[in-house]
Each structure stands twice: as structure tokens, then as C-alpha cells.
């Protein structure tokens, strides 16, 4: 079996987060990917745009199973989301923000951004928020604080994180040694999400207007 570190070194010098991620995956395999996505969900400065394309690339080197990487990454992200949901549920949003804002590289503005998204879009923010940086990890906190139904939260979380993970892992697998390009161009994925959300809002408005017209007849 090809050493994962050797395979990665051909495409990257294994510095910074990429190096740490490669070492974790080398030690734990697919479950290392799950651990990394759990940490990324709880600690936003760890970027999934780096971790998951790397994992996708490594599946093409014969060391890991593509489906299992997807499953473990989604389970890890869900576990991290549940931790933040539980924290918001137990201590409330403001107290949770004060606690988490003490972490290095975590800004209070990121929490306020996520809370604003949840306030404006409700449960749909759980799905779409999983696809957006700065919102992806922290959207679970206001959901827990507002006592969002756990089953609904879980469905939207798994759907959103599953889609995001599939896109990044698949891109890494397709790009091969150029997997790092995913991080550079991930903003275009974000633009697509914003466009999709805008279309969804327009659809909701049109549907509501039609219902009002029908009820007025």
C-alpha cells in the first residue's frame, strides 16, 4: 500500500495545516478524516477546503476508500455540529459565544453572522449555512439556543454537510495532485450557494403570493 505521506509529498511539501492533516490521516486513515472534520466544525479556522480535497486526492493513491472517506467526514461534521447544538441548548447563545470567543482565531463577528443567518432564514439556514464559510460551523449554536427540533436539525445538517463534503472530496479526487486548487477557487462554490439561496427565497415569495391570490378568490 502506498504511504499516504509519500503520495502527498509528491504534490505538497506537507507544511502547515496540510502537513498536520496528512499526518493525522496517515495514522488513522479514513477515521482520521472524520476526526479532522469534527475539529473543523467545532474550530472554524481549520478549513475543510484544505482537508477534504486532500482526502479525496489520497483515495486515488490506493490508500483509502472513497465512500468510507465520505461517510466518516460526514459523521465527523455531524458530531461537531451536535456539540455546538448541545452547547447552545444548555447555556444559551450569548454565554456560549462568550466561551467560544476566547478560542484563538475565533471572532465574535463570526458567531453574530451565523446567528443573523438563522434569524433570517430559520431551519433552511441549517442546510444552506453548511455550504458557506463563517456560517458552516457556527450555525449549530443558534439552532440549539432556539431549541430547534433535533430531528429536523439532524436531517438538514447531514444533507448540507454531505453535499459540501461530496463536492470537496470529489473535486480532490478528480484534480489529483492539483487538489490544492479547490481551496483557491472555493469562493465560486460560495457564489453558487448564494445564488441558490436567492432563488429559493424568490420561489418562496412567489409561492406565497400565489397562495394569497388563490385564497382571495
Notes on the protein architecture:
With 217 residues, the protein is mostly helical. The protein has one domain (4-216). The chain is built from 11 helices and no strands. It has helices spanning 4-9, 16-28, 30-42, 48-59, 66-91, 93-100, 108-121, 124-129, 140-145, 150-175, 181-216. The longest helix is centred in the C-terminal third of the chain and has 36 residues, at 181-216. The protein is globular and about 65 Å long. The model has no long low-confidence stretch (mean pLDDT 77).
Task: Detail the topology: elements first, then pairings.
Blueprint: H1 4-9, H2 16-28, H3 30-42, H4 48-59, H5 66-91, H6 93-100, H7 108-121, H8 124-129, H9 140-145, H10 150-175, H11 181-216
Helix pairs in contact: 2-3, 2-4, 3-4, 3-5, 4-10, 5-6, 5-10
Key structural traits:
217 residues, mainly alpha, 0% strand
Task: Provide a short characterization of the protein structure.
With 217 residues, the chain is mainly alpha-helical.
Order of helices and strands: HHHHHHHHHHH
As for the number of domains, it is 1
Radius of gyration: 19 Å
**What proportion strand?**
under 5%
N- to C-terminal separation?
70 Å
- Oligomerization: single chain
The biggest beta sheet reads:
none
Give the mean pLDDT: 77
Helix content: over 70%
Low-confidence stretches: none
**Shape verdict:** globular
E-strand count: 0
The count of helical stretches stands at 11
**Structural class designation:** mainly alpha
